[in-house]
Amino acid sequence: MGTTVHHTTAYNPEANGMVERLHKTLKADLMSRCNSSTWSSQLPWALLGLQTTPKEGLDASPAEMVFRKPLVVPGEFFPDGPSSNVRHQLL
């Protein structure tokens, strides 16, 4: 797969910049969605949003890079048409 393992110390978070940026983005997303007591119920939706958002320079989302096709998100299960008001009721 072309992955490499990089060991970092717990006392030097700057050495693990990519993970720290992900944590910062995830925390900001969770803080915008809910208060501190309900963050665990919003975590799957925040992660889904991060995994399906295309990244600059890659023209693909992280999910597309892993699965080689876009994820089908809950709003895409229903086709547009006469039954689309059911879609709006669920969202």
From TrEMBL:
Gene Ontology molecular function, alphabetical: nucleic acid binding
Superkingdom to which the source organism belongs: Eukaryota
Gene3D superfamilies in alphabetical order: Ribonuclease H-like superfamily/Ribonuclease H
Name of the protein in question: Integrase catalytic domain-containing protein
